[in-house]
From TrEMBL:
Residues of the Glycosyl transferase family domain: 184-310
Pfam families reported for this sequence: Glycos_transf_1 (PF00534)
Nucleotidyltransferase as UniProt keyword: no
Protein name: Glycosyltransferase involved in cell wall biosynthesis
Length: 336
């Protein structure tokens, strides 16, 4: 998504640069580590401000500040230079103001307070931003988008496999893989194949989850863009439950390729899916199994839903639409 934003800003007529490579993330809730990173950030400010003046920076844009990785430099630099400060996909988490991430959560809140414009990607994020927004802040909806202005030309695959695409790491991603495995156990027939695109430190655990299904499951590994596009093109549908996904970029790619999606009706995820039938979390794997089976057994239904998915992406989630939204936000703070 960050690369997509850089491309969109370029298409909007700007020349974005990576101003700093400071990595502020603390994934473990270590107060000492947070303080060390805050100290590093403060030490980096003078050089950034000097560089900004010399290079004539016109605005500072930060992507995805949140309680585990707050923007510790954008606001102060923007204030020192007298330029607008814009945030994209910022999140607020008041419940984190106590506990192991308290320092970083406070810093993330302070960064949000300093922003002139906040682009939100989902309604879930917008709610907290609106509740805490300052009167002078502009809040603008920027739907997640693909890095292209035309849809891929992909053929319809009448007998393709199920496709799952996701990183293999502990936590939410592994939870989605667990749901996939539980769903496959409840499929009414064995007339299915699954291809999995992705890799990561939890690959062994994912492989163990899929071991009972033998050669019905194929691991494709981490794929480059062209190979992933080929996987979409030969698939019958995308199956990814979406446990705690902010929205899920894979859903955009799959629908653009004309694939119907089987996912759970979760906040964030539902905002990038074409209108359709998506089982709730409480319905469990059995509902997902029924939905996957329904699509696999009905070629006409898959074709209709695939076309609807493509049309939905074309209307709401393409590059040129995002360029227009970014231009509008920047123009509101005098950056033309």
């Amino acid at each position: 998504m960050a690369r997509a934003l850089i491309l969109a800003l370029e298409h909007a007529g700007h020349s974005p640069i990576i101003a700093s490579t400071l990595r502020s993330r603390d994934g473990k809730g270590n107060a000492q580590r947070q303080q060390e990173i805050i100290t590093q950030a403060k030490a980096a400010l003078p050089d950034l401000i000097t560089r900004g003046r010399a290079e004539g920076w016109r605005a500072w844009v930060t992507y995805h500040t949140y309680y585990k990785a707050p923007d510790l430099i954008g606001g102060p630099v923007a204030q020192a230079l007298g330029i607008p400060y814009l945030q994209i996909e910022a999140t607020r988490a008041a419940k984190r103001l106590t506990g192991p991430w308290a320092q970083f959560a406070k810093a993330a809140e302070q960064a949000c307070d300093m922003a002139d414009v906040m682009f939100y990607l989902t309604a879930r994020d917008a709610q907290a931003l609106r509740e805490n927004a300052l009167p002078t802040q502009e809040l603008i909806h920027l739907p997640p988008f693909l890095t292209r202005d035309t849809l891929p030309d992909t053929p319809f695959s009448p007998n393709g496999p199920i496709l799952s695409v996701g990183m293999m790491r502990e936590g939410d991603k592994l939870a989605s893989y667990q749901i996939i495995a539980e769903t496959l156990k409840q499929m009414p027939t064995d007339a299915w194949r699954l291809e999995i695109a992705g890799d990561g430190p939890a690959r062994a655990k994912v492989a163990a989850l899929m071991a009972p299904f033998g050669d019905k499951v194929t691991f494709l590994g981490e794929l480059k863009d062209a190979d992933l596009s080929a996987a979409y093109a030969r698939a019958a549908l995308l199956f990814w439950p979406g446990v705690n996904e902010a929205f899920g970029y894979v859903y955009l790619e799959a629908q653009a390729a004309g694939l119907p999606v089987v996912a759970q009706n979760r906040p964030g995820v539902c905002e990038v899916l074409a209108p359709g039938q998506y089982p709730s979390e409480s319905d469990g794997p059995s509902a997902l199994a029924s939905r996957v089976s329904e699509l696999l057994n009905d070629t006409d239904l898959r074709r209709v839903e695939g076309r609807a998915a493509r049309a939905y992406i074309a209307k709401h989630h393409m590059l040129l639409a995002a360029v227009a939204v970014l231009k509008d936000g920047l123009s509101r703070v005098g950056v033309l």
